[in-house]
Amino acid sequence: MEWLIPVLIVVVLALVVGIYLWATYNSLVTLNVRVDEAWSDITVQLKRRADLIPNLIEAVKGYASHEKAVFENVTKARAETLQAQGPAEAGAAENHMQQALKSIFAVAEAYPQLQASQNFLQLQAELVDTEDKIQASRRFYNGGVRELNTKIKVFPNTLFVRGLGFHEREFFEVTEPAAIAEPPRVQF
């Protein structure tokens, strides 16, 4: 009978540890999936913006055909955005896209007829909406990454979660904050 109490203590301890590991694993899986979903949302919005860019270029080209360098920069930034793999590359591509959009809107300011064009105004509105959605998606993604990284780093999780295949994720940060400190001006 004396051996029953230590055995029960060990069984209860093993059960508590097992439940803790099970709950931790499941919460990490949930956070990991949430971060993947958030990244997918970002890529959808970046693709949407990239799809709007050729229409915007065509609308402006008719009025400012001599601004070839601006159009080339926008096209290059669009391609870079579409090819970005992961948050670091997407952040760098985001800097280039913001600079390119600023330059195309600067060109557009010089053409009052373009500013009155219904097609151009609609494209602007869609672009502003898309930019807002990109910002919201970035916040959601970075919030998920923060939760996941925190859960991975806290003790005692840090002792075993890497062995389960979980690793910290990158935040979607812009490498040059000055490039996006001010969004492209789209009001004329």
TrEMBL record:
InterPro entries: LemA-like_dom_sf, MamQ_LemA
Cellular component aspect of the GO annotation: membrane
Keywords: Membrane, Transmembrane, Transmembrane helix
Entry's transmembrane regions: 7-25
Keyword Transmembrane helix: yes
Topological type in the membrane: Single-pass membrane protein
Superkingdom of the source species: Bacteria
Localisation per UniProt entry: Membrane
Organism: Agromyces tardus
One Pfam family per UniProt: LemA
Protein's name in the database: LemA family protein
Entry similarity comment: Belongs to the LemA family.
Entry keyword annotation includes Membrane: yes
